[in-house]
Design brief:
Helix content: under 10%
Number of strands: 11
Largest sheet: 7 strands, mixed
Number of helices: 0
Radius of gyration: 13 Å
Order of helices and strands: EEEEEEEEEEE
Strand content: over 45%
Structural class: mainly beta
Distance between the termini: 37 Å
Length: about 120
């Protein structure tokens, strides 16, 4: 399975971006999907995740109410709509696929496939 994330860019604080992550190969509908991010000098952290069927979602406290994760299994794509962006949202954003049915989707060690990352820069 190959994951390709795109949609990052430079945006002013308060603005919005939508990230997309397309899957190539594998059976996309069998994977839970997650978004993680890594800011300069910091460890990679959980942002959001969604179950295979899109029914359940999880968010980091820092993005709750501002970000929305969704997926389109027919298009093999997961999205992250980011609104009210803050300077501290600046990071490289990664999408990842988890083939397991159970287990915490906040735990990045559980994810089996990773995309290459897309840079999001929020100017203050």
């Amino acid at each position: 399975v190959q994951l390709q994330a795109f949609g990052g860019g430079l945006v002013q604080a308060g603005g919005s971006l939508r990230l997309s992550c397309a899957a190539f190969g594998g059976t996309f509908s069998m994977y839970a999907m997650g978004w993680f991010r890594q800011a300069p000098g910091k460890e990679r952290e959980f942002v959001s995740a969604i179950t295979r069927d899109g029914v359940s979602t999880w968010y980091a406290d820092s993005v709750e109410g501002r970000f929305t994760i969704s997926r389109d299994n027919a298009r093999k794509t997961v999205y992250l709509q980011m609104n009210s962006l803050k300077f501290e949202d600046t990071a490289v954003y990664y999408c990842a696929a988890d083939t397991a049915l159970y287990g915490s989707k906040r735990d990045q060690t559980r994810y089996d496939y990773w995309g290459q990352g897309t840079q999001v820069t929020v100017s203050s």
